[in-house]
User: Fold this.
Amino acid sequence: MSSAASPHPAPLHVLGALALELRGDAPVARQALAQTQVGALAALIARDLAAFAPDAATLELVTVGAHYDPVELLRPGWPLHHELDQLAARAPGRPEPRVIAFGAHAGQLPGTLAPSADFFGGPLRLVPFLLSPQALAGDNDDATAARVGDALESGLLERGMAGADTALAAQDAFGVQVEHARYLTVHDLAAMMALQYEHAGLAPLWPLLETALLQPQGEEWLDAPPEPLVHYVDGEARIALFEPRAWKARYATDAPCNTPECRERLERQHQHFQTRQRQIAAVLGAHGITVNFVHSPGEGREALT
Assistant:
C-alpha cells in the first residue's frame, strides 16, 4: 500500500492492476478507450475486487481505460497510480462509494496517463487501479482500506483470476486476444518482475530496483564483480565509469597481459562490460530511475558515494 503526498495525513491506498496476458501473435487494436467505453469495464473490476474483499465495495475505485507495460507501473513513488489519485481528487463529487474511470477525449487521455509507445507490444499489459477511502472519510474508512489491502496482498496471487465477463470485456474493448486475466497488487507485480529479471540474468540488479520502488529515499549498492558498480542513493542510480587501469584492477586481475591474444581477450571483456553497463542503465531508466555515469579513477566505491 502507498499514500499520496499531502499536507494532511493521507488515506491509505490499495494499488493494483488488472493484468492481461495477451496471445503473442495477436495485434493490439487500441491502447486507450474513449470515456464512453471505460465505465462498463470499471464496473466489472469493482465487482471482481468486492468478491475478493467485500469491504472493497465501500471504497472508491479509480482506474483508467488504458493498458501499460509493467515498467510503467513499477516506478519510484508509483507515479501512474499517483496521477490517478490526483485526477480523482479533482473529479466532481458523487454519491459514495464512487467508481471513477478515466478515458480518452478526442484521442487524448487526461494528465500524464498516456501509455508510452516505447514499451508497447509486450505480452503482459496492465490496467491500473487504486482503492481508497472517500475524500471526507474518517479513521474507520482508513482502517477499511488497510484491511482490504491486507486481504488483497494475501489472496490475489492464489485466487485473483478476473471474472470471465471481465476478461471478455477487456478483450473486446481493447481489441486484443486475452489468454489470462487476473488481478495483482503492485507488490505482486514486483515479485513477478523479480522472477522475470532472474530468468533474464538480471537478478543482481533486483535488490537495487526493489529499494528504489519500495524505499525511494533509501540506499543500495550493486557491488558484485563482474557486474558494473552501481550505487542507488538520493533518488538516483550512479554507475561507475572506470579509467582503464582501475577497470583492469577491479575486473581483470589475472596474470599480466602481454600477448596479442591476451590483449584481444581483454578488449572483448571490456566491451562486454560496457554492454552490460548500457543494459543496466536502460533497465533502470525504463523504471523511471535517473541514471548518472560517474567517472571513477579508482577501483572502489569512493566516486559514487
User: Anything to note?
Assistant: DSSP finds nine helices and nine strands in the chain.
